[in-house]
Amino acid sequence: MHLVTPRSASTTAPSDTVLLGAVDLAREVLLEQVDATDVGAATAAVLEGEHVVTHYFACLRAGYVGWTWSVTVTRAVDSDLVTVDEVVLLPGEDAIIAPQWVPYKDRIRPGDLSPGDLLPVEEDDPRLVPTYSFGDDPLDADAKAQVRQVAKDLGLGRVRTLSPEGIDLAAQRWHDGDGGPDTPLAQSAPAKCFSCGFLLRLSGHLAETFGVCANGNANDDGRVVALGHGCGAHSEAQLSKKQQPLPPAEHAHDTLTSDELETL
């Protein structure tokens, strides 16, 4: 076992020989909570601060490779009576731990929703803004209810609409996706979507950047595509001479009579 002084500990804190020597007490308390077969040798004693030391023991429990038992002890300033603060099982650098929790709404991917599934957006979703607003100040619950009522009364059709941030996120996602200009399909295309007769232009902020493919024979039919995207189903695509199918051979006429066939 060795003594470790962490950087966070005070450099002026004196070495506490009483707490550093309380290895047996730390192990005894640890064995009251876990099986003896799960506890290995003492590996370190860390001086956490004045009158606070943590003793570490190797963890031998199956499935916990790289983990360490931690027992923190302390004592009063004028007393040699050692007391235990906590017993914790901690992961080391090589420990196998569960991945960081990702909320369900952040794990959803396109195609995951089934019929009947609901994915409500948060009230303060930055991708959406009220269709009709009283100003730029944050709205409380009552004000938001009034905004929705005004939008309904005005017949705007939608209580909320895309915010500039929501538009930018969608544009970046579409640009980087399968309908963007950098895909292998687009790079090998004879021409770009902006000159294709099957392109339906979007309206609004994205009109000069994206459209929807309306070619039923194309891979992107019904999908948003960047104007710099392209594919082999472009309306003006032409086959080169070497790509054109060979014309059928001329018909061969059999002129032999049955008599001539017998003499062969």
What does this structure look like?
A five-stranded mixed sheet has the order 1-2-3-4-5, with helices on one face. Strands 8-9-10 form a three-stranded antiparallel sheet. Among the domains are: 2-91, Nuclear Transport Factor 2, Chain: A (Roll), CATH 3.10.450.630; 122-162, no CATH class; 174-226, no CATH class. Residues 1-13 have low confidence and may be disordered. It has seven helices and ten strands. The chain has helices at residues 17-20, 23-31, 104-107, 141-154, 164-176, 184-187, 258-263; strands at 2-4, 39-49, 52-59, 67-74, 83-91, 128-130, 160-162, 199-201, 210-213, 224-226. Pfam families: DUF3027. Residues 236-264 are annotated as: Disordered.
Structure at a glance:
This is DUF3027 domain-containing protein. By secondary structure, the chain is an alpha+beta fold.
Please render the helix and strand layout as text.
Layout: E1 2-4, H1 17-20, H2 23-31, E2 39-49, E3 52-59, E4 67-74, E5 83-91, H3 104-107, E6 128-130, H4 141-154, E7 160-162, H5 164-176, H6 184-187, E8 199-201, E9 210-213, E10 224-226, H7 258-263
Parallel strand pairs: 1-2
Antiparallel strand pairs: 2-3, 3-4, 4-5, 6-7, 8-9, 9-10
